[in-house]
Amino acid sequence: MSYERTDDIPGADGGDGRQEPAPIEPEAIRILTDPNSWLSGGTAGSSSTSTETRAYSDDFRLSEGSRVAVIGGGPAGSLFAQFLLKTLNRTGTSIELDIFEPRNFDFCGPAGCNHCGGVVSESLVQLLAAEGIVLPDETVQRGIDSYVMHMDVGSVRIDTPLQEKRIAAVYRGHGPKNSEISNIPGFDQHLLQRATRLGANLRPQMVTSVDFTTGRPELTLADGRSENYDLLVIASGLNSALLSMVEQTGCGFVRPKAAKSFVAEFKLGADAVERHLGNSMHVFLLDLPHLQFAALIPKGDYVTLVMLGDKVDEALVNAFLNAEEVRKCFPERRPPPNICQCFPRLNVSQARRPYADRLIFIGDSGVARLYKDGIGSAYRTAKAAANCVSLYGFSSSDLEKHYWPACRKIIIDNLMGKCVFGVCHLIQKLAFARRSVLRMTEQEQNDANVVPRMSSVLWDVFTGSAPYKEVFLRTLHPVFIARLMWNLCAANLRIPTGKKPEVTAT
Ligand SMILES: Cc1cc2nc3c(=O)[nH]c(=O)nc-3n(C[C@H](O)[C@H](O)[C@H](O)COP(=O)(O)OP(=O)(O)OC[C@H]3O[C@@H](n4cnc5c(N)ncnc54)[C@H](O)[C@@H]3O)c2cc1C
User: Is residue 344 lining ligand 1, measured as CB closer than 6 Å?
Assistant: First the structure.
């Protein structure tokens, strides 16, 4: 199973191999007067609070003049808008698509921040380019060429196993509150601008409530006005109060479960960043309770710290920053006070039933990959949702047939991910296992003739560049198991590897 090719994106052919798109009917417009129930999927009327006389399509298909609301202008919302508008442009169908996004990505600090490490696989950058979404060079910091894995038993550098497995750090928005505004276009801003260039209307407003009692989605905005739409796409991320509101409607949607994570920025200056971290991302497998993964990501003058786990709190952050393996990555072995920090939430499970008649949840609001590649999941769910809406329709059964398979594929892979992270957690806990992983990785990195089985597994776990199922299956390979067993004995009996490691073990 691979997500890397466009033709492999679930939902691109409807998930059932069918290629025939249903025709889009440009003439299907009518003034709605009969307020049937949204839950029964009826064709329904306008809101009593709406100030406009509105025209609606009378079935679950988009047609000339249909109105689509997208709540959230993060990667999922912007990509959905682009994919949908591009397809409809080809069929000559003109719709009204509003993206509601109060955040101003031009601002520094929380007002423009998307709380993210910004690590993406190069293959995603290329996939976007194949869609015509070419990111400005300054937005994609391609310099990251390796990982350094730190454990209490030593550290090892892991080089990119293959060219297509390279990773990049995207510049998602302006930096911390007091940082200088740079001219670099942020990733989220760039995607949003592309959507507006294709015809989306950017509405810089917060949506305060969503109501379906008239049979169609009715949004209330922060200024108290209400508006009706034919289709509502919720791409409001994980933290939006709207998710709980929709849960209350009884449409079957249950919001994803979330856990607290931690992000902080340290300003070291470009020279110090280069000296202490180089072009590598530094990941830590430390035996600290509740910590699943932590990384230091070099970004120009700054270093971003990301900590993921099932319960990241201040005590854990302090314990982490005081660990010797972390301190040695900073000048004078002392992390300076950070200039910006937050505890954003991260998906640890998927939404239940992320669709209903005239309603779709995409990106973090719906289904995302466990711990990694949130931007990649935003892309996949946005693409599958736009394909379903433009080619098949947006009734609950259309979405079940042509959108849900894309979500299901991610969910099944996440189950494998849980096994993979479970094994990582075990390694974190057991010193003899850490020594064996370190030894095996060192050998692979220092001998070009050895197939880098452990290195490629670790690379894909840290970057999320491959589906978890693929990673899991690789660890079941007999040669992998045999070499792991040998290294388990050799490392714990202190048999030398015979080659000098790239990063000296402690
Ligand atoms: C600590 C941390 C580190 C991460 N690191 C990475 C990483 O390295 N690589 C990676 O790929 N992913 C990473 N992610 C995940 C990634 O940030 C998300 O998966 C991705 O941003 C999801 O995109 P989205 O569009 O679904 O949601 P978001 O990016 O959250 O966008 C949602 C948007 O909706 C808007 N919104 C919310 N409510 C309303 C409302 N009521 N009205 C109008 N607008 C609203 C918000 O302003 C926001 O801009 C990380 C996440 C965390 C927490």
Answer: yes
